[in-house]
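User: Hi! I'm working on a homework problem where we have to compare a predicted structure to a textbook description. Could you give me the structure for the chain below?
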Amino acid sequence: MSDFLRRISIAHWPIWAKLLIGFLLAVAIPVVLVLALTLNTVNQVGSQNVRVFITETSARQARAFSTTFGQALGELADFVSSETNFMLLRRALPVYDTVPVDPNTQFNLAVELQNQLLNTTNSIYQEINLIDPEGQLVIQAKPNDIIVGGADLSQSAAYRQGVEAQLLGLSQALTIDAGAGNQPILDVVNILEVTIPGVRHPVVFGYLIARIDVQRTILDNLPMRSDLINASNRLVTRQGFVIDSNGVQVLDRLDLNVNLFEEALNGSPQAETFVRDNTQFVRYYAPVENSPFVLVSEGQTNLVANQIARFLAERSFALVLGLMFLLAVLVILANQLLSSPLRRISQAIQGVTRGNYNVPLPDARRGDEIGELAGSLADMRRRVLDIINDLEQRIEARSRDITATREISHAAATQRDLQQLMDRVVNLIIERFPNIYHAQIFLIDQENRYAVLRASTGDAGRQLLARGHRLAVGSLSVVGRATETGDLVLARDTATSSLHRRNELLPETLAELAIPLRVGDRIIGALDVQSKQSDTFDEEQQDVLQTMADQVAVAIENARLYTESLRQLQELERNRRVSTLQAWHQYMDSLRVQRLESAVGALPQNSHYNADQQISLARGEVVVGELTERQTIPVAVPIRLRGQLLGAVEWEVPETDFDQNKLQLAQQLTDRLAVNLENARLFQESQRAIRREQLVNEISAQLTAQNDLDQILQTAVREVGKALRAPQVSIRLNTGANGHQNGHTGDEQ
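Assistant: Happy to help. Predicted structure tokens:
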């Protein structure tokens, strides 16, 4: 099974198969990507064009409808507002029933309605009805007909809308209703009112209703005409009336976005994209002014893209056949021209992987692409070899750099010099912050009275340090205030700040910031920075400087503690050396001799220290003497214990055996001798202390065993005399204020 998988693996395919697959992928992938990109671009552009077309066309049609409805309202209002026409209306519809109506007047009014509103050029009305307040038809005027009186129109939508408009205080209304044959009916209602003396409110004496020619004004202009875009329009009202190319219908629920529809009714055009039956549509809501309508336009967005896709699919077959033939020719040529030279180039590459850069490349002399490839491989092989050599050198150099960097970092981390630390800090601030031109560090003196300048930058800083510049803690300055309160103090503009203390060496300072150096609850100084720009220290920079000040304070305190610890260590070491020397002096005095000596071999007469020992004691170092007549070299080594010289040791080493190792051995033996002498002295001291403790315990035991006062005194005199080997011991006790004394005296030999 594994052998079968190995055979079908692409790595074992012949080169022509690989080339064929490669060419197919090389051609197919770009073609597919180009087609996908083209279709996507066409789809996006087509969708955008559809959106723009529908938006612009719908807005233009909405404006046209708004103009039409405005004209319908305006012409009827103009007719009523005419004084002559209004008088005809008054005579045709008297307010009181007692006033007789002249039929000729009604006929003349109907004629005026025909002449002024119906039979004019581009008239938008079909008929005009005059109705009395109870809804009875008084006059009906049509372009070619006039009817006087008759029908009851009190249940018509126009009459009801007129009554509602009159109750709302309106003078006009536009009504819509569904007529016979599902045809929309649009009426413009003008309320006829007259003011009568003695009556508080105007009196309605009738309604003038003009019916709009829906076919010519709406239905003929409603379709959105385009050869490429399939779009539809409809006029919709809030009450559910929908006018489209099929007529009018009343819907209980609108299939629209209610929020967008309400926005459009309020005068704000809206647009949305939605999907219906896996097809994307764009919908535009255009408000129609002077009417209760919103023009809703819908269009399919991918129609243009689908047409282009069908066009490409119809013409792609011939393109595929041509590409297949071209691929076959390319595979055959490539298989004949590439196999052998590629095999040699592969062997050269394998040689490079094994570290052999001398595999022959005869194809490098060819003038075609194979030759260029072989030549490039040869150049690459040389470059790889050069790069390897260069990398080895760079790695070696980088190792040296890393080592040096580590040593420098270690030296900086172990720096304990307080002055160098502060100088480095102020210089670092000047380097890192371009808006700071001067930085300095103040430390409070031991009396907590003054903040003394300890580090500063520039020539001005050197002059200030030279003259011992200081500021009183709590003085009228940013440093004085910061060291007193322990808070950050900022002078944003030195020209107006009362805290800035002008310095003649720093005349360019326009802003100053002082940050207290705090260690716990203790203020040890302040970090002061100054700038040539006013109001330049923002909160972020203040935080950075505050952090740096805290670090500086801790570093200063650590340096101070380190210096103090060194001083205490030196004091302790000095005291230990003194105590060691005093202990040896007391020990020597207890032995009642001036020095301890021991020797092996012949010594000079009447001399405790020879010249070499004296020089060694004086210098405190090993002294090598001159060659003696015994062919030996004297070596004097001081006996040193805790920095104190106790004496000297001298060896005479045969000249033939003398070398540096003998000197080191002599020094090590002398050091060991000093330790052993000290151990021996301490041992003897401890033995004496033990004997004293034993003697005190024995005397105390004997005294404790006695109950009589005289026996205790006699025992004490006797035992103390024995212990101290004193010939005379006496004890006297004061018996009282009379001054008489009793005592016991004993003689001990």
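For your comparison, note the following. Residues 400-413, 603-607 have pLDDT under 50 and may be disordered. The longest helix spans residues 15-81. Good luck with the assignment!
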